[in-house]
What we know:
By secondary structure, the protein is an alpha+beta fold. The protein has nine helices and seven strands, in the order H-H-H-H-E-E-E-E-H-E-H-E-H-E-H-H. The protein has helices at residues 9-14, 20-29, 42-53, 61-65, 113-124, 130-145, 159-162, 181-184, 186-197; strands spanning 69-71, 78-89, 95-105, 109-111, 127-128, 149-158, 173-180. Strand 2 and strand 3 (95-105) form a beta hairpin. Helix 2 (20-29) packs across helix 3 and helix 5 crosses helix 6 (130-145). The chain is elongated, with a radius of gyration of 20 Å. The model has no long low-confidence stretch (mean pLDDT 92).
Amino acid sequence: MHINRHRTHEAQASEAGAMAPLLRDLLVHIGEDADREGLVRTPERMEKALRWLTRGYTMTAREVIGDALFEEDYSNMVLVRDIEFYSMCEHHMLPFFGTAHVAYIPNGKVVGLSKVARVVDVFARRLQVQERLTDQVADALVEVLEPHGVGVVIEAAHFCMMMRGVEKQNSKTVTSALRGTFRDDGATRQEFLRLVHR
């Protein structure tokens, strides 16, 4: 079955309220009284929060970058460090969060720096696994910027490891995606990793 992963804001708005009855049933199935004063409006609040947390399905990297591409004769590394992000694990629908470090080497065009953070959010605000999130950010920047190379490192803590299962509160997961010169040139790769980890 094909699922449209980039629904418009209008389509999402037209679905508003559709999840609330299901979420009410969920409260009942976990043993709660869905008519209790504190829970009466919880299904609507849950739906609103869930739509906000997954709003990346209505966005693309190209759209959020828009016209913030500028011709510039700069051919050295551009690194945006410590971009905080929040996402949800698709396996348990529990949060994972951390920082993304994103670098690229321009090929005649630079992008507004805030747009790099917005590209991270496009993919973080979907049900995710960290490995795919890392690849998606790198591939989107390659597609839109057409740079000489892109490097992405993501460090995150996962509530599915912290609150359930092994319950390891201090564990972090680190993933990387290297494209172009970041993958093919050892000196570029080492410079990137040195700047990321200082």
